[in-house]
Design brief:
alpha+beta, single chain, 308 residues, 25% helix
Amino acid sequence: MFEASQLVFYYAVSPVHMGAGSAIGAIDSPIQREVHTKHPMFAGSGLKGALRHDLNRAWPQTLVNRIFGPDTGASDFAGALSLSDAQLVALPVRSLKGGFAYVTSPLALARLQRLAVQAGLQADWTVPPVVEDKAQTASSNLLTGKQLILEAFEFPSEVNESLQVIAQWIATHALPGPANSFFANKFKTDLVLLHDTDFAHFARHAMVVEPHVRINDESGTADDGGLFYVENLPPETLMVGLAQASIERFKKGSRNPDSAALLNAPEILTKVFAGQGEALPGIGGKLLQIGGDATTGRGLVLVQTAPR
């Protein structure tokens, strides 16, 4: 069905709330999570909707419909672009040294490598093993002696050259360009590998939880029961997914000699992410707003495609 694939990185610039509805517990509005890992995720449907909304303002409506599918009469023909769910690659965790570390796990790196190969990228690095309650680091920048301190936890740590190779690969593909040089350089030195069990704790509990108060319009004070808590993915989180495309489709019997030329799969990915001049700006290397609370600055995500 899909004839071209592209690896897409999503780097959170602000807290991001991709909501999962209501929940029973202290957090009233949690973020989306995978069922089996409990890692944060971005649903592909939400990403595609946000991307379409962004391009709606910059592209002719006819071209948007051709690539994403019709805005009405969805059964007329299928869109030619597909976005997968975005998976967690690295999570920012407060560190005693260096401010914060980019923390990952063997599972997260193996899933990134699998997607990279699917997209036709060379990712021939090997994920190093790590035991529970210990850590591997890309450099000694974050270490106090041989200890890494994340939040309130201490991890005996050692520098691993294999992790340095992985950190270099991710920084090069996910954070290219001078505007991202500080974060790319930090990623190269401050990437930390934890056991999947240890990483799962931070993936579950290292989120930004914000209190919100609903104000009564008449009194101008807090409504009874108006206090609620919203969970957000923290800024500096790195996610990854696939963008896939097929040849453009049209409604049966609607094609005629005057119709626009069919776009093939690589052309669709190029238009969406690289654009075509000032008339058709692409989204690659730019901020995309996804999720809720946009008017309070939430949901700003840098979208970056990894070229083959």
